[in-house]
């Protein structure tokens, strides 16, 4: 069995968001796959919508490595326009670089420069600024066959100049714990619980690559394109569900890049997920063009639209509480003071109800009891 350079590079994976994923095609692993090259990976774009821009720099990771991927810290990131304007990013957290909301010229072209602490200089091509058209609407319907809610997007461009689109979304849903806890133990005394741990909200961002093109039709129009499917069994649709859709216009080159990346990641959609083939993008090492660099720099306006739905689909959680005596004189009986779970409420003058934390504290399911500012 022989491996050329292309096939060897194809076995590298970008495990920058998910540790421990296996991506072996055959049991044989050549030495090159087990080396730690740490290629630079850029994830982000220039937001032309008078909103903050964010770029994340990490390193690719060998498929067999058990370690978490490393960030590229201390770099200098500058975006330059062809008309001579420079925009410098700052690094508020490790490997995360941000640019405050800025007014950009949509008729200009922009280029990304990255200067690392190791003295390397990476540079993108100049890219066209894309003015994304508005989202017409975000729709939803219940699919009985799937037993799921399907969310879709509608958009169009009367000028016919967009043609290539990409979408991301953020879902947020409200849910409750199985039991409502009204009391708690504090300093060996039962007191009224001051905080709400019954209702929570949980959010998740999309990870799949969602693309659309109108290049093969007359009208530059997208109608009822599915972007998210939420199964009823997920329990996200029981009370209230919200979807924030983000829309981006793409150049043909950017569309082709994301299309190829979508194929290689088999629908996982993240730049930091395993990539069995070489999809590098438009960024190069200025001094060493042969070095692999992953990511695609683009400049576009971001259009958003949020919807709320209350389909009331799913089943409420069910827990049976324990009955606990208030008195603690018998060492063989678990009393309220010694109970390892959370108290629920008074049953009568001599006993209370209690249950495990998973039954009474909604935060154990990954959400927060702080109501989002945008929640209706």
Can you summarize this structure?
The protein is mainly beta and 376 residues long. The chain is built from 3 helices and 25 strands.
Q: What labels would you give this structure?
A:
5-stranded antiparallel sheet, 12-stranded mixed sheet, mainly beta, 376 residues, 3 helices, 39% strand
Tell me what you see in this structure.
The chain is built from three helices and 25 strands. With 376 residues, it is mainly beta. It has a domain at 5-124 and 252-297. The strands form five sheets. Strands 1, 2, 3, 4, 5, 6, 7, 8, 9, 19, 20 and 21 form a twelve-stranded mixed β-sheet that branches. Strands 12, 15, 16, 18 and 22 form a five-stranded antiparallel β-sheet that branches. A three-stranded antiparallel β-sheet has the order 10-11-17, with no helix packed on it.
Distance between the termini: 61 Å
Record field, number of beta strands: 25
Helix content: under 10%
Taken as a percent bin, the fraction of beta residues is: 35-45%
List unreliable stretches of 5+ residues. 1-35
Q: What Rg, in angstroms, do the CA atoms define?
A: 26 Å
Number of helices: 3
Structural class: mainly beta
Mean pLDDT over the residues: 87
Q: Order of helices and strands, N to C?
A: HEEEEEEEEEEEEEEEEEEHEEEEEEEH
Q: Characterize the overall form.
A: elongated
Q: Describe the largest sheet.
A: 12 strands, mixed
Write the layout of secondary structure elements.
Elements: H1 5-10, E1 40-47, E2 53-59, E3 76-81, E4 86-88, E5 90-93, E6 96-99, E7 109-115, E8 121-124, E9 127-130, E10 135-143, E11 148-156, E12 164-176, E13 183-186, E14 189-192, E15 199-205, E16 210-213, E17 221-231, E18 240-249, H2 252-264, E19 283-285, E20 293-294, E21 299-300, E22 302-309, E23 322-325, E24 342-346, E25 351-355, H3 357-360
Parallel strand pairs: 1-20, 1-21, 9-21
Antiparallel strand pairs: 1-2, 2-6, 3-4, 3-7, 5-6, 7-8, 7-9, 8-19, 10-11, 11-17, 12-15, 12-16, 12-18, 13-14, 18-22, 23-25, 24-25
